[in-house]
Structures are given as C-alpha cells and as structure tokens.
Amino acid sequence: xxxxxxxxxxxxxxxxxxxxxxxxxxxxxxxxxxxxxxxxxxxxxxxxxxxxxxxxxxxxxxxxxxxxxxxxxxxxxxxxxxxxxxxxxxxxxxxxxxxxxxxxxxxxxxxxxxxxxxxxxxxxxxxxxxxxxxxxxxxxxxxxxxxxxxxxxxxxxxxxxxxxxxxxxxxxxxxxxxxxxxxxxxxxxxxxxxxxxxxxxxxxxxxxxxxxxxxxxxxxxxxxxxxxxxxxxxxxxxxxxxxxxxxxxxxxxxxxxxxxxxxxxxxxxxxxxxxxxxxxxxxxxxxxxxxxxxxxxxxxxxxxxxxxxxxxxxxxxxxxxxxxxxxxxxxxxxxxxxxxxxxxxxxxxxxxxxxxxxxxxxxxxxxxxxxxxxxxxxxxxxxxxxxxxxxxxxxxxxxxxxxxxxxxxxxxxxxxxxxxxxxxxxxxxxxxxxxxxxxxxxxxxxxxxxxxxxxxxxxxxxxxxxxxxxxxxxxxxxxxxxxxxxxxxxx
Length: 491
Prior knowledge:
The protein has 16 helices and 17 strands. It is α/β, with parallel strands linked by helices. Strands 6-5-4-7-8-11-10-9 form an eight-stranded mixed beta sheet, with helices on both faces. A six-stranded mixed beta sheet has the order 12-13-17-14-15-16, with helices on both faces. A three-stranded antiparallel beta sheet has the order 1-2-3. The two termini are 13 Å apart.
C-alpha cells in the first residue's frame, strides 16, 4: 500500500500513542482489583480478602505511575469511604512518593511530591517521604493488609540510605554509574546494598498480615528483584556483586565528589561483606495457591506484574494492523546496549523494509547513553539520541541522497512522557523533518547533526526542527516504545 509522507507521520504518532494507552494505569488496576457489590470482599489478582478480617488497609509505594495507580485503586474502594468506621469496613490510609508533577488530590492516600520533573534522582523530599512509608510499615499489625503500588522511577523516589552513606554520596554513585554506561541491573545491584528499603527490605519492615505489590514494570524481562530495586523481593545479588560492579568501572574518569563517594561506599560494602549474615535469605518459605510467598521472618508477600513493555508493544501492533500495516513487533527482554547503536540498527531495518517484507516495525526496550564530558554535554535523552543516530545513518546512505521523499517515519519515546532531563517524551524522524533539515543545512553549513550527537545535545537539535514528541506525564511507565513505518514509493 502506498502512503503519503503526511499519512506516515500521522500514523506513526497515532500508533505510538495507542501503545501508551494500552498500558493506561486505570485499566490495568481495574483488570486486577475488584470490590464485591456488597463491599465485603476485595479481590486482587484472583486472591480474595474478606474485609471484615482487615482492621486497616494501608497503601504505600512509589514511582512515576504510582499516583495514577493510587487514584484508580481509590476509585474502586470509594463505596467504602462513607461506611468507614462501621463494622467490617477497614480504615484506609496511605502514603506514596511521586514526582512533583504527578501529585493528584486523593481522599485517603497521600501523594508526596518527591522530585522535580525531569530530575530522576533521589532528593531530601523523597528521603522524608520514604521515612513516612517505613513508619507506616512498622505500624502495621496482624490484622492489617498492605498494598504496595510500585512503578518505574521507584528507585529514585524511595531512597532510604543507611546512616553511613549520605544522600549526596548516593547521588554521586548513581550519577557515576549512569554516566559510565551501567545498565539498570548493575545500577540497582549497587543501590540495593546502600538502602534500608530496597532489595527485599520492605517486606522485612512490614508487620502486617499480608503485603501485595502491584507492579508496573519498567525493566526489560520483568525481573522482580530489579524493578524499583525489588523492595518486596529477596535480593538476588549480594555485596560482592556490588563491589565487582564498582571495580568494573574503576577506570572510568570520575569527579572528585564521585571519587569520594566511591571510596566511602566501597568501604561500607566491604564492612557489610565481612558482617553479612550467614542466614541471609534463608528463611523458610512456602507458597499458597495464588503464588503468594510466606516468609517465616515476615508474612505473606505477593508480587503481581500488572503491565509491562510487551503489553505496550502489543497494543501499538493492534493499532498498526487496524490501519492496514503488515507489522513485526519486538519487546526486548535484556539490555539493548547504547542508544546510538539501536538507532543505527533501526535505520538499517527501515532501509531493508523499503525493499519488501513488513512495512511496520514496533519495538520496545531501554538502551543506555554514554554521557559526554560534563563541560561539553548538552541536553537530551536516550530516545532523542537514538532518533538522531538513526537520522545520521540515513543521511549518509546513498539511497537517500536525492531530493525525493524518504517515505518513512520513525518515533521513539518514553512511555512515561519523560526522556532524560527534558520535557519531551522523545523525538520523531519523517520527511517533514528531513525537509526542514535540508533547508537548515543549505542556509547554515555549520549546523552539524554529528556534533549534537557527540555532545548529547539532541533536544535543541530536534526542537529547532519541530521534531520533539511532547506528551507531558502520561501516568504510566513501561520503558520506551518505538515505531518505524515505510512506504515503497521509491523502490
């Protein structure tokens, strides 16, 4: 089927948005949580909880999408609000850490603003909020039910550094590892060892009868011990692994503040290694028919993934097929490597698609960016970096040198609406952008896309060409979603 450049551009954005809508939090919560018509039984992912046996229903959590999760959860429980205090109706309270721009007015659950938009790092406000969550967990009794609403960004929004490690040192370690190219698994393996909540410690703090985590996964392959650093899952990595990761990146240049933080964290981890309990993760566990795990050192713990990247990819694929495209869909299950490399691969796949086979490729994943030196580093995010690398690859291909339309459209964006420390979800590439770029290069020969790529400065590049994809906070978060469409006019 032949499609105009305008149709390709419109279709790519619509398909991408359909993928994001496919992991809308309200729908995911409603699919997994139900209150019986008489309000006596709460069903969560097939498990039944008679409310007459529950004194308090306490909601905790953190993440970019956790505010919307709490909003949807409250909407289901709303029939109980006016009956609260009556026999058989539990008291409902809660505290969740969210980004500042994700705060919503809820009735029972307090949404605590914990970091500014675009700053995906722990803050003192987040530390304060996490301490309130820990206090709630410690206040629970055997007749209380705890619901943990967890989503991507939870690691930064739920900081609880031990007394030996300052928040600033934790920040410097995170910045160093991220800038060195560490993937999310490596980053969390270190962060879990310098936290009082992560790496299964939330379930150890919980004094309630049951703890249920409803999880929106932003990690490829959905490893429960990695999502938000696994606060309700036994730690699968140990102190020795964290030390090995620090050693792996020891040759990467670090600022003076980072070097100080690395030395202090390494000293702390070495002391932990010497003192590590021999019975760590050795508690007796059994499972019930719903998959909840009973830990003899705690209570019943159940972790339920209610949405992930594959679900978004599938939803985008359904919309693409509805629009008449022949579609291939891929959701990565492991690290994809550098964003630039992924962008080049997508460009080469688009070239192949022009000659036959499917005319739509939908993929999901989460590549990393190797940061340029701070003194030359610009503004951007991994999705913008990816699309810029794809654009440069196509610009240098002899098949795209003429004045004819390229006949393709490509979008890459974070499903949460954030791409790095910017207000954009990502960027697009299509014939309209290429036309503007050609005009810019003709009038301004020094305008070099490669320079923007090398300095991580993709944001102003795409901003000048109207190529940013801007959605604002979407209320969900399942890694990145990419759409590539082609026609075969020029084949």
